[in-house]
Amino acid sequence: MKAPASAPAPGPAEEVQEPQEPQEPRRLTDEEQRVWRSFMEGVTLLDDHLDRQLQRDAGMPHVYYGLLVKLAEAPRRRLRMTELAMPAKITRSRLSHAVARLEKNGWVRREDCPDDKRGQFAVLTNEGDEVLRQTAPGHVEAVRQAVFDRLSREGQKSLGDIMRIIAEGLEPTEAGADLPWLR
After folding, report:
1. Where does residue 74 rank: exposed (0-12), middle (13-18), buried (19+ CB within 10 A)?
2. What is the structure's pLDDT at 183?
3. What pTM does this model have?
């Protein structure tokens, strides 16, 4: 019986790699945990506060209001559906459902895209523009009371800077990025 060949000893340029122990997951420090929980509580309560205000004043959730605002700001009050999903940070499916509800209310209509048979535009109607005009003052006041009246100018700037850093880190630009409006 032939003896098994042994592996050659590593040469001078080769390193012997020791098996590595699996690393423990990084845990949040107590302070990081406090910041994280405060952030999540604040975001959840703010979203609920704004949703309740808009449901009460206009019968729509906050995300629908944001869609109407984006359309109002767009040239000719119209955007391709994907262009509308991007700033809303929502999936195509959620956008399609939201636009269907806005259409049912008469606030938005869809138009086929002439140069792309599968593409559609969402267009803000005059009725939608009027709802937005009537709803905006109460919404701005709710945002002001919930956020800006509670922060100093420095706090407002810090919040804006921090949220921009987080958003940019979660919105990669490379091809194939898994972003809501691409799903």
Report:
1. middle
2. 62
3. 0.78
CA angle 167, 68, 48 (to 5 degrees): 60
* 98 CB-near residues (< 8 Å, 6+ apart): 63, 64, 67, 90
What pLDDT, in 10s, does the model give residues 85-107? 888 888 888 999 999 999 999 99
Residue 177 to residue 172: CA distance in whole angstroms: 6
At position 179, the amino acid (one-letter code) is: L
Q: Return the structure tokens found at 157.
A: 């700037």
Neighbours of 121 (CB within 10 A): 21
Give the count of beta carbons closer than 10 Å to the beta carbon of residue 162: 11
* pLDDT tens figures, 99-157: 999 999 999 999 998 887 788 999 999 999 999 999 999 999 999 999 999 999 999 99
- Nearest CA to 129 out of 87, 51, 69 is that of 69
